[in-house]
Amino acid sequence: MDYLKAFLIGGAICFIVQIFMDNTKLMPGRIMVILVCLGAVLGAVGLYEPFAKWAGAGATVPLSGFGNSLFQGIKDGIDKDGFLGIFKGGLTATSAGIAGALIFSYIASLIFEPKMKE
């Protein structure tokens, strides 16, 4: 049941984003920034954590979950390191995901033939 809930919640988030992409003039990069900021803001007001516990991977995998992770890392970094935690906390909290994305992207570029768009 957890898998089904994660699939439905993650699919609903993607569905809403697709509606924005189809019906507005916002570029995909701007929509991605909006999702990250929305996750950070919802985390700051305390709404994202209960939602993520309920929805599981359906809420933590999309970019809004990344924004929440950034906020949580910064909050923990400030508690631990003070002012320096503002700069250090978010990177520390999300470093595994960022490193994984870079490593797997590099491996994919070795396996497949990347081409420039014409």
From TrEMBL:
Protein source organism: Anaerocolumna chitinilytica
Domain of life of the native organism: Bacteria
Family annotation (InterPro entries): Spore_V_AE, SpoVA
Protein name: Stage V sporulation protein AE
Keywords from the UniProt entry: Membrane, Transmembrane, Transmembrane helix
Parts of the chain that traverse the membrane: 6-24, 31-48, 91-112
